[in-house]
Write a structure and sequence with these properties.
By secondary structure, this protein is mainly alpha-helical. Helix content is 68%, strand content 5%. The termini are far apart. The relative contact order is 0.08.
Length: 427
Amino acid sequence: MGTLALLDALWEMPAEKRIFGAVLLFSWTVYLWETFLAQRQRRIYKTTTHVPPELGQIMDSETFEKSRLYQLDKSTFSFWSGLYSEIEGTLILLFGGIPYLWRLSGRFCSYAGFGPEYEITQSLVFLLLATLFSALTGLPWSLYNTFVIEEKHGFNQQTLGFFMKDAIKKFVVTQCILLPVSSLLLYIIKIGGDYFFIYAWLFTLAVSLVLVTIYADYIAPLFDKFTPLPEGKLKEEIEVMAKSIDFPLTKVYVVEGSKRSSHSNAYFYGFFKNKRIVLFDTLLEEYSVLNKDIQEDSSMEPRKEDEGNSEEIKAKVKNKKQGCKNEEVLAVLGHELGHWKLGHTVKNIIISQVLSFCLTVLSRRFEFQADAFAKKLGKAQDLYSALIKLNKDNLGFPVSDWLFSMWHYSHPPLLERLQALKSTKQH
């Protein structure tokens, strides 16, 4: 009876308090669910201390242990940062942080001569203050992640000065995009009448497509250096492969990702007949600045005064980030081009207007399909070895809790992808 009475009392509360309580309840329910899944995966990291038999031929115990410790550190960081974020959000709601920020933005507007009728102007000031608050409270966590965790495991390549300049630049660029787009969206909502939500949805979809189109050409170069891939065998083979599947390739770029991190990646972008491919320099074995630095260290004759550093040099050579050979780069691109050929990009955009979980499930299916497409291009063997190398270079942990993996991973676990490739792998 006591529980029923409590529920009745809650139901009899004013509507705004019921909504407030429902928002808090939903937020903490999602957080606890995510934490439960993370703890399941953390248990995997803790208990799986030996290379699984099926990985014995492709992963050594030293790399496996490095990966395990890296993922454990990331898991610990994720727990504390997630808990802080949830508590911060709850306190903001409980103590009226959002109404306070709205009133504060109104005061700033009145100082500038804008009255209460300038709702859109006040909304933009509110957004500016909210994103500034978020950036400042998130800065210590970002610093710790970069200069403690990523540094400890050999991925960070940034200096503190570079990091801070980058953070300021990101904030400014974000405001230059967010504020004009938000003002237009608010105007559409204001004049849209009963069907404002349809117009707002179409507008946000159009903005998303425009940003996808211009990002690599006009936004990404503000942060990283993009250079055309030099003429040579790799570029020729990329062009031949693109032509074989009617991919309208116009340019191939190499981005200097190594000044930020030693993680590697590759992607394509563009619409219609104007497609470009971007390769991270850390992906290319012969192009990586990191590899060149290590080669220079290993080739230098040790001087007497440097004898104490010889062990460090040997360690760097032993742990060098290999990147991928040209054949393996082509196999990775074969997989990425499979996403284009099979229409995954457009499907993802459509599905993303529904539910993120559905997108995760669909994305995993797409990854298998793209792997299968790379096999049809005759790249099964090279993709197999490339996936292993990329997993090793990025210290990816190959063992996952099935529920955590299903909920979070947009890419299938390494073992599942290797097993799918192995069934028809070229010998």
